[in-house]
Design goal:
- It is a single chain.
- By secondary structure, the protein is mainly α.
- The protein has one domain.
- The protein is 77% helix and 0% strand.
- The chain has 14 helices and no strands.
- Helix 5 runs parallel beside helix 13 and helix 7 packs parallel to helix 10.
Protein backbone atom coordinates (compact mmCIF):
# COMPACT_ATOMS: atom_id res chain seq x y z
CA UNK A 1 0.00 0.00 0.00
CA UNK A 2 2.89 2.36 0.78
CA UNK A 3 4.26 1.82 -2.71
CA UNK A 4 0.84 2.48 -4.25
CA UNK A 5 0.42 5.63 -2.16
CA UNK A 6 3.81 6.96 -3.20
CA UNK A 7 3.02 6.37 -6.86
CA UNK A 8 -0.38 8.06 -6.59
CA UNK A 9 1.04 11.07 -4.77
CA UNK A 10 3.58 11.48 -7.53
CA UNK A 11 0.69 11.58 -10.00
CA UNK A 12 -0.98 14.33 -7.95
CA UNK A 13 2.29 16.25 -7.47
CA UNK A 14 1.78 16.09 -3.69
CA UNK A 15 4.39 15.62 -0.98
CA UNK A 16 2.20 14.18 1.81
CA UNK A 17 -0.60 11.58 1.96
CA UNK A 18 -4.14 12.58 1.00
CA UNK A 19 -4.48 16.26 1.93
CA UNK A 20 -7.84 17.52 3.15
CA UNK A 21 -8.36 19.38 -0.13
CA UNK A 22 -7.74 16.19 -2.09
CA UNK A 23 -10.22 14.27 0.06
CA UNK A 24 -12.86 16.99 -0.37
CA UNK A 25 -12.30 16.87 -4.12
CA UNK A 26 -12.62 13.07 -3.98
CA UNK A 27 -15.97 13.38 -2.20
CA UNK A 28 -17.04 15.81 -4.90
CA UNK A 29 -16.04 13.32 -7.57
CA UNK A 30 -18.22 10.72 -5.87
CA UNK A 31 -21.24 13.01 -5.38
CA UNK A 32 -21.29 14.22 -9.00
CA UNK A 33 -20.60 10.72 -10.32
CA UNK A 34 -23.42 9.38 -8.14
CA UNK A 35 -25.89 12.03 -9.30
CA UNK A 36 -25.14 11.14 -12.93
CA UNK A 37 -25.51 7.44 -12.08
CA UNK A 38 -28.80 7.80 -10.23
CA UNK A 39 -30.27 10.22 -12.75
CA UNK A 40 -29.37 8.21 -15.85
CA UNK A 41 -29.17 4.68 -14.43
CA UNK A 42 -25.61 4.22 -15.65
CA UNK A 43 -22.67 3.10 -13.58
CA UNK A 44 -20.86 6.15 -12.16
CA UNK A 45 -17.63 5.16 -13.90
CA UNK A 46 -17.84 7.55 -16.84
CA UNK A 47 -18.25 10.55 -14.59
CA UNK A 48 -15.64 9.34 -12.12
CA UNK A 49 -12.99 8.89 -14.82
CA UNK A 50 -13.54 12.37 -16.22
CA UNK A 51 -13.83 14.05 -12.82
CA UNK A 52 -10.78 12.23 -11.44
CA UNK A 53 -8.66 13.65 -14.24
CA UNK A 54 -10.27 17.09 -13.89
CA UNK A 55 -10.48 17.54 -10.09
CA UNK A 56 -7.80 15.16 -8.83
CA UNK A 57 -5.33 15.52 -11.68
CA UNK A 58 -5.06 11.74 -11.94
CA UNK A 59 -3.35 10.00 -14.84
CA UNK A 60 -5.73 8.09 -17.14
CA UNK A 61 -4.75 4.67 -15.75
CA UNK A 62 -5.22 5.86 -12.15
CA UNK A 63 -8.54 7.55 -12.99
CA UNK A 64 -9.78 4.25 -14.41
CA UNK A 65 -8.51 2.37 -11.37
CA UNK A 66 -10.36 4.78 -9.04
CA UNK A 67 -13.53 4.26 -11.06
CA UNK A 68 -13.39 0.45 -11.02
CA UNK A 69 -12.42 0.11 -7.35
CA UNK A 70 -15.10 2.50 -6.05
CA UNK A 71 -17.80 0.65 -7.95
CA UNK A 72 -17.26 -2.56 -5.96
CA UNK A 73 -19.23 -1.37 -2.85
CA UNK A 74 -23.04 -1.37 -3.44
CA UNK A 75 -23.35 2.43 -3.54
CA UNK A 76 -26.33 2.33 -5.91
CA UNK A 77 -28.69 0.65 -3.41
CA UNK A 78 -30.26 3.97 -2.46
CA UNK A 79 -30.90 4.79 -6.11
CA UNK A 80 -32.44 1.37 -6.83
CA UNK A 81 -34.83 1.90 -3.92
CA UNK A 82 -36.02 5.15 -5.55
CA UNK A 83 -36.74 3.35 -8.83
CA UNK A 84 -38.58 0.50 -7.08
CA UNK A 85 -40.76 2.95 -5.16
CA UNK A 86 -41.73 4.45 -8.53
CA UNK A 87 -42.91 1.02 -9.73
CA UNK A 88 -40.02 0.01 -12.00
CA UNK A 89 -38.73 -3.58 -12.01
CA UNK A 90 -36.69 -6.06 -14.03
CA UNK A 91 -36.16 -9.77 -14.64
CA UNK A 92 -33.62 -11.76 -12.64
CA UNK A 93 -32.76 -13.69 -15.81
CA UNK A 94 -31.68 -10.46 -17.54
CA UNK A 95 -29.42 -9.58 -14.62
CA UNK A 96 -27.71 -12.97 -14.45
CA UNK A 97 -26.85 -13.11 -18.17
CA UNK A 98 -25.68 -9.51 -18.23
CA UNK A 99 -23.58 -9.96 -15.08
CA UNK A 100 -21.95 -13.13 -16.42
CA UNK A 101 -20.87 -11.32 -19.57
CA UNK A 102 -19.59 -8.33 -17.61
CA UNK A 103 -17.41 -10.43 -15.30
CA UNK A 104 -15.63 -12.14 -18.18
CA UNK A 105 -15.38 -9.05 -20.36
CA UNK A 106 -14.14 -6.88 -17.49
CA UNK A 107 -11.08 -9.04 -16.78
CA UNK A 108 -10.16 -9.21 -20.47
CA UNK A 109 -10.55 -5.46 -20.98
CA UNK A 110 -8.46 -4.63 -17.90
CA UNK A 111 -5.60 -6.86 -19.03
CA UNK A 112 -5.55 -5.10 -22.39
CA UNK A 113 -5.68 -1.65 -20.74
CA UNK A 114 -2.66 -2.44 -18.56
CA UNK A 115 -0.53 -2.62 -21.70
CA UNK A 116 -2.08 0.41 -23.42
CA UNK A 117 -0.77 3.98 -23.25
CA UNK A 118 -2.78 6.71 -21.51
CA UNK A 119 -3.14 8.60 -24.78
CA UNK A 120 -4.54 5.55 -26.57
CA UNK A 121 -6.95 4.96 -23.69
CA UNK A 122 -8.23 8.55 -23.86
CA UNK A 123 -8.81 8.36 -27.61
CA UNK A 124 -10.52 4.98 -27.16
CA UNK A 125 -12.72 6.62 -24.53
CA UNK A 126 -13.67 9.39 -26.95
CA UNK A 127 -14.48 6.88 -29.70
CA UNK A 128 -16.54 4.78 -27.31
CA UNK A 129 -18.59 7.75 -26.10
CA UNK A 130 -19.11 8.99 -29.67
CA UNK A 131 -20.44 5.58 -30.75
CA UNK A 132 -22.87 5.51 -27.81
CA UNK A 133 -23.96 9.06 -28.59
CA UNK A 134 -24.77 8.14 -32.18
CA UNK A 135 -26.72 5.07 -31.04
CA UNK A 136 -28.81 7.16 -28.65
CA UNK A 137 -29.43 9.91 -31.23
CA UNK A 138 -30.48 7.43 -33.92
CA UNK A 139 -32.79 5.72 -31.46
CA UNK A 140 -34.34 9.05 -30.44
CA UNK A 141 -34.94 9.99 -34.06
CA UNK A 142 -36.50 6.62 -34.94
CA UNK A 143 -40.03 5.46 -34.24
CA UNK A 144 -40.77 5.52 -30.50
CA UNK A 145 -42.14 2.50 -28.65
CA UNK A 146 -45.88 3.09 -28.47
CA UNK A 147 -46.47 1.24 -25.24
CA UNK A 148 -43.74 1.10 -22.61
CA UNK A 149 -45.39 -1.71 -20.71
CA UNK A 150 -45.60 -3.91 -23.77
CA UNK A 151 -41.99 -3.13 -24.63
CA UNK A 152 -40.88 -4.05 -21.14
CA UNK A 153 -42.64 -7.44 -21.35
CA UNK A 154 -41.02 -8.41 -24.65
CA UNK A 155 -38.71 -11.40 -24.53
CA UNK A 156 -34.99 -10.69 -24.70
CA UNK A 157 -32.88 -13.72 -25.61
CA UNK A 158 -29.99 -14.95 -23.46
CA UNK A 159 -27.41 -14.66 -26.31
CA UNK A 160 -28.26 -10.98 -26.81
CA UNK A 161 -28.00 -10.29 -23.07
CA UNK A 162 -24.72 -12.19 -22.76
CA UNK A 163 -23.25 -10.34 -25.75
CA UNK A 164 -24.33 -6.99 -24.32
CA UNK A 165 -22.76 -7.96 -20.99
CA UNK A 166 -19.49 -8.93 -22.69
CA UNK A 167 -19.36 -5.61 -24.54
CA UNK A 168 -20.17 -3.69 -21.37
CA UNK A 169 -17.62 -5.66 -19.34
CA UNK A 170 -14.88 -5.22 -21.94
CA UNK A 171 -15.46 -1.47 -22.08
CA UNK A 172 -15.56 -1.42 -18.27
CA UNK A 173 -12.20 -3.11 -17.84
CA UNK A 174 -10.53 -1.33 -20.74
CA UNK A 175 -11.85 2.17 -20.02
CA UNK A 176 -12.60 1.89 -16.29
CA UNK A 177 -16.17 3.11 -16.61
CA UNK A 178 -18.26 0.26 -15.19
CA UNK A 179 -20.18 -0.61 -18.36
CA UNK A 180 -23.44 1.03 -17.28
CA UNK A 181 -23.56 3.38 -20.26
CA UNK A 182 -23.45 0.41 -22.64
CA UNK A 183 -26.11 -1.46 -20.65
CA UNK A 184 -28.55 1.47 -20.61
CA UNK A 185 -27.92 2.45 -24.23
CA UNK A 186 -28.03 -1.18 -25.40
CA UNK A 187 -31.26 -2.02 -23.58
CA UNK A 188 -33.11 1.21 -24.34
CA UNK A 189 -31.83 2.03 -27.82
CA UNK A 190 -30.91 -1.42 -29.10
CA UNK A 191 -33.49 -3.68 -27.43
CA UNK A 192 -36.20 -1.02 -27.08
CA UNK A 193 -36.64 -1.46 -23.34
CA UNK A 194 -38.41 1.47 -21.59
CA UNK A 195 -35.88 4.08 -20.45
CA UNK A 196 -36.66 3.95 -16.72
CA UNK A 197 -36.57 0.15 -16.72
CA UNK A 198 -33.24 0.09 -18.58
CA UNK A 199 -31.82 2.55 -16.05
CA UNK A 200 -32.94 0.40 -13.13
CA UNK A 201 -31.25 -2.64 -14.70
CA UNK A 202 -28.08 -0.58 -15.09
CA UNK A 203 -28.17 0.45 -11.42
CA UNK A 204 -28.85 -3.08 -10.14
CA UNK A 205 -25.85 -4.37 -12.07
CA UNK A 206 -23.68 -1.80 -10.31
CA UNK A 207 -24.39 -3.41 -6.91
CA UNK A 208 -23.04 -6.70 -8.24
CA UNK A 209 -19.23 -6.75 -7.92
CA UNK A 210 -18.82 -7.05 -11.69
CA UNK A 211 -15.81 -4.70 -11.64
CA UNK A 212 -13.88 -6.68 -9.03
CA UNK A 213 -11.87 -8.70 -11.56
CA UNK A 214 -10.91 -5.58 -13.50
CA UNK A 215 -10.10 -3.66 -10.30
CA UNK A 216 -7.82 -6.51 -9.21
CA UNK A 217 -5.88 -6.25 -12.48
CA UNK A 218 -5.41 -2.49 -11.91
CA UNK A 219 -4.32 -3.14 -8.31
CA UNK A 220 -1.76 -5.70 -9.43
CA UNK A 221 -0.42 -3.13 -11.90
CA UNK A 222 -0.05 -0.54 -9.10
CA UNK A 223 -2.71 1.72 -10.58
CA UNK A 224 -4.95 2.32 -7.54
CA UNK A 225 -4.80 5.34 -5.18
CA UNK A 226 -4.52 5.25 -1.35
CA UNK A 227 -7.59 4.01 0.54
CA UNK A 228 -8.59 7.46 1.95
CA UNK A 229 -9.19 8.72 -1.60
CA UNK A 230 -11.16 5.61 -2.58
CA UNK A 231 -13.23 5.86 0.63
CA UNK A 232 -14.00 9.53 -0.02
CA UNK A 233 -15.24 8.81 -3.54
CA UNK A 234 -17.40 5.93 -2.26
CA UNK A 235 -18.96 8.19 0.42
CA UNK A 236 -19.86 10.74 -2.24
CA UNK A 237 -21.39 8.03 -4.43
CA UNK A 238 -23.81 6.97 -1.70
CA UNK A 239 -25.22 10.49 -1.44
CA UNK A 240 -25.15 11.41 -5.11
CA UNK A 241 -26.86 8.24 -6.39
CA UNK A 242 -29.90 8.75 -4.17
CA UNK A 243 -30.21 12.40 -5.24
CA UNK A 244 -29.94 11.52 -8.93
CA UNK A 245 -32.47 8.67 -8.77
CA UNK A 246 -34.97 10.88 -6.96
CA UNK A 247 -34.68 13.46 -9.73
CA UNK A 248 -35.01 10.79 -12.45
CA UNK A 249 -38.41 9.66 -11.20
CA UNK A 250 -39.76 13.16 -11.83
CA UNK A 251 -38.56 13.32 -15.44
CA UNK A 252 -40.10 11.89 -18.62
CA UNK A 253 -38.42 9.11 -20.60
CA UNK A 254 -37.45 11.39 -23.48
CA UNK A 255 -36.06 14.01 -21.11
CA UNK A 256 -33.80 11.39 -19.54
CA UNK A 257 -32.63 10.24 -22.96
CA UNK A 258 -31.78 13.82 -23.98
CA UNK A 259 -29.88 14.40 -20.72
CA UNK A 260 -27.94 11.17 -21.30
CA UNK A 261 -26.98 12.36 -24.81
CA UNK A 262 -25.83 15.73 -23.43
CA UNK A 263 -23.77 14.11 -20.64
CA UNK A 264 -22.12 11.60 -22.98
CA UNK A 265 -21.34 14.36 -25.50
CA UNK A 266 -19.86 16.60 -22.80
CA UNK A 267 -17.58 13.81 -21.53
CA UNK A 268 -16.41 13.02 -25.07
CA UNK A 269 -15.67 16.70 -25.78
CA UNK A 270 -13.74 17.10 -22.52
CA UNK A 271 -11.56 14.06 -23.16
CA UNK A 272 -10.93 15.23 -26.74
CA UNK A 273 -9.94 18.71 -25.54
CA UNK A 274 -7.69 17.20 -22.87
CA UNK A 275 -5.89 15.05 -25.42
CA UNK A 276 -5.51 17.90 -27.92
CA UNK A 277 -4.38 20.50 -25.35
CA UNK A 278 -0.67 19.54 -25.43
CA UNK A 279 -0.74 19.74 -29.21
CA UNK A 280 -2.20 23.23 -29.18
CA UNK A 281 0.33 24.36 -26.60
CA UNK A 282 3.33 23.34 -28.64
Amino acid sequence: MLALSTTMLAQFGAVEPAKIGTLVAAVGVGVVGGIISGLLGTSPGGGIVVLSTLLLGADQHFAQGISLATQIPPTSVSGIRRYRLAGHGCSLRWLLWLAAGMLVGGAVGAMVAAHTSSSALRWSYVGYLTALDLLLIVRSASERVANDAAAGDRSIGAPALLLLGLIAGSSSGYLGIGGGLVIVAGLSAGMKMPQHQAQMVGLILTIMPTTICAAYVYWRAGQLPPWPILSSVVAGLWVGTSLGARAANHLARESLRRILIVVVTAMALYMTARELAPIGAT
